[in-house]
Amino acid sequence: MMNEFEFISWLRQVLDRPVGRTGVAVGIGDDMAVIDLPGGKVLLGSDMVIENIHFTFPDAKPEEVGHKALGRCLSDCAAMAGEPVAAIVSVARPPEMPVEILKGVFQGMMQLADRFGCPIVGGDTSHSEKGLVLDVCLLGKCQRNEPTLRRGAKAGDYLYVTGTLGGSILGKHLRFEPKIEQGLWIAEHLPVHAMIDISDGLSSDLGHMCAESRCGAELFSHAVEAAISVDARKLSAKTGKEAMDYAINDGEDFELLAAIGISPSELPDLPENVRLLPIGRIVEESGILMIYPTGRRVEIQAGGYRHF
Amino acid sequence: MMNEFEFISWLRQVLDRPVGRTGVAVGIGDDMAVIDLPGGKVLLGSDMVIENIHFTFPDAKPEEVGHKALGRCLSDCAAMAGEPVAAIVSVARPPEMPVEILKGVFQGMMQLADRFGCPIVGGDTSHSEKGLVLDVCLLGKCQRNEPTLRRGAKAGDYLYVTGTLGGSILGKHLRFEPKIEQGLWIAEHLPVHAMIDISDGLSSDLGHMCAESRCGAELFSHAVEAAISVDARKLSAKTGKEAMDYAINDGEDFELLAAIGISPSELPDLPENVRLLPIGRIVEESGILMIYPTGRRVEIQAGGYRHF
Hints:
Two copies of one chain form a homodimer.
Chain A: H1 4-15, E1 24-26, E2 33-37, E3 40-50, H2 62-79, E4 83-93, H3 99-115, E5 120-127, E6 133-142, E7 158-161, H4 172-175, H5 180-189, E8 192-197, H6 202-213, E9 216-220, H7 221-226, H8 230-239, H9 243-249, E10 256-260, E11 277-283, E12 287-291, E13 297-299
Parallel strand pairs in A: 4-5, 9-12
Antiparallel strand pairs in A: 1-2, 2-3, 3-6, 4-6, 7-10, 7-11, 8-10, 9-11, 12-13
Helix pairs in contact in A: 2-3, 2-5, 8-9
């Protein structure tokens, strides 16, 4: 019997065939699909947010659930250096859930939608047998630049993240700011060769970038150390697990990870809302290594969230 | 406490505000949203298909479930006289469901996608607590004509459907053909003022069209009689309920309902794949009436499926 990973591998293979794919520049396997329309490239992607999988009530407020549902899609759009155009929301509500909760969910989405000029233009409503199910589909456009893909990273590129990492479970996963403006600024001002948002965890998402770019990466331990979030350190103090471990493997940071062709010392002045923390570089040999100041080299396994 | 209908009414109101809506030609309230992009108008819409709500296993084969999930979106696109460009599929699978079933679902979708040149370009996979959840989001384009909306029907227009009605529960709801080519042909060759697909039932969907167009409709009983499907008659023979009742109120026929500015005798020759069955006409006064040959006039209440 086929297992889940075999299924996803089968799906990528059958969906990646050329039949009827005129105009599809990038299909399955990036943060969003890229489609060539007569007026330019558009982006299309979706993200599901499901009760008791991606959030639990009452830990999450309804507004935060809505924020997260749309925010995940916006973060994908940021990773493509795209501009959001419009969103579609499908929602399935379990029978016992008060409608007021759904209202809060939509208020959370609309606040974020307004901030990014991304109207919610339609969708579908239905019942669910158990748990709230939200699926947001986002249409984006790339008019100011080419979309930045997971593939394209080159040996010699430096790796940067747009913010600190780890411990998002303490709240950031419900309240993160999608890095739309940051993604656009990076694509317009820097020689960026590949970009992805950190949703599954740095080790997993860097692994995705390396697999698509057919390369490997070295992380500088002292630099990653400097990119550990306050929340990762809080968790570490509580559990005794290393804070570095949370920074490398925690999902849902929703920071951008970019492979850029210039070193930290060559970076131009950054606008106030853009942070770029250097954490390592791209190398030819596959695999991800952590390099310690002593010269010790340790292979990093993808430890983040795996879909399915 | 707010009830469901109040919620949907609230949602339509708050989502229909102008904030950030540059480029949104048509938002909530039609079969798909219409968005103005630099290269032309695009369409965006989504439909959820949920186990034990929209289908049950093993009554439905996995391939049929996939067909239905994508087909519903394609039918919406047909109603807008749009051409499908690409689809995004989000799927949440309950833990106990064999992956083989999911493979069948995607095979059903892909067969339909290939026939309509509409590649599946991405999506999301997740777990569900109970029951299979599929959400398909479709991107369409309108390059050969303006999108046909629910609003725009005028007193004097004749009402046509593209096929017979009722009894889809006997199988058509899983195996219908989305009327993409028919929708395009109608928009290109006839003075169509409004169009919708019959997903909730003729009485409900005609009601939607009339509400959006601020008009009413008269159905000619002998003409509707001639548009009753074989399956509606089969159901009627079994249950004793009138076949006409199934034709008027059953959902998921996925035929197009069009308000066209010419009478049946003025219609040009139709291509082989286009059927247009006249069933009534648009009038100024609100409400939907069934007109019998005797002159009797009976008001029809929306009796089809109501969302939520």
